[in-house]
């Protein structure tokens, strides 16, 4: 026996358990808002830019081969920036707590395809510290790269400022609440259909017709018990047989 579900039945299920869907959505949004505003620690982001460009003499002409060489060096520079040889000096100069490995987790090196500009992005729970780490990392890298690679082709293009990192990048409360609302709606709708699927009781005549495929001929209604009367005095009724020649009631 094939079972088909119409859109009307689907909407009936949603309307029946609308309270459950709304409740789950409100709870999810409230929990997300509380965690975003009061539990999670704000994270600030700061970034600086460095330019990888080989210094040229007056006789040296600008050519694409030199540009490609610099671009290929960027992949190597990305690894050097987050290496202990650079970060250990950054920690020592800024007197930071932790190791170079922990500091590496806060630093991200980004460069666009076929671009000689590299961005050093730092995320930290303190806006000023994030700015100091970004600027110091770029400065230390500029000083150390000639010793490591025997080339002097790195220049700090722009420094990070505290004003740019005054607003936290994480968490984003409004985005988190919006995601929680969507998840709450999905969870509430899914739970409603699950409860409806697990409910195998018959509640209406239509349920019987759908399962047995037979018309309902009659319905027995529920009859409430009538309370028995107590201490009720019955009237004294006596019957007398009329005598001969006497009419009844005379």
Question: How would you characterize this protein structure?
Answer:
The chain has 250 residues and is of the alpha+beta class. It folds into two domains: 7-38 and 172-206, no CATH class; 41-170, EIF_2_alpha (Alpha-Beta Plaits, 2-Layer Sandwich). The protein is 49% helix and 11% strand. Strands 2-3-1-4 form a four-stranded antiparallel beta sheet. Helix 2 (18-39) runs antiparallel to helix 7 and helix 4 (84-94) packs across helix 6 (127-149). The two termini are 80 Å apart. Mean pLDDT is 81; it is low at 57-61.
In short:
The protein has 250 residues and is of the alpha+beta class.
Name of the top-level CATH class of the largest domain: Alpha Beta
Give the strand content: 5-15%
Number of strands: 4
CATH superfamily of the largest domain: EIF_2_alpha
Q: What is the fold named in CATH at topology level of the largest domain? A: Alpha-Beta Plaits
Roughly how much helix do the residues carry, as a percent range?
40-55%
Strand order of the largest sheet: 2-3-1-4
Number of helices: 8
Rounded mean pLDDT score: 81
Reported CATH architecture of the largest domain = 2-Layer Sandwich
Structural class: alpha+beta
What is the overall silhouette? elongated
Along the chain, the helix and strand elements come as: HHEHHHEEHEHH
Membrane topology: Multi-pass membrane protein
Keywords: Cell membrane, Membrane, Transmembrane, Transmembrane helix
Protein name: Capsular polysaccharide biosynthesis protein
Subcellular location: Cell membrane
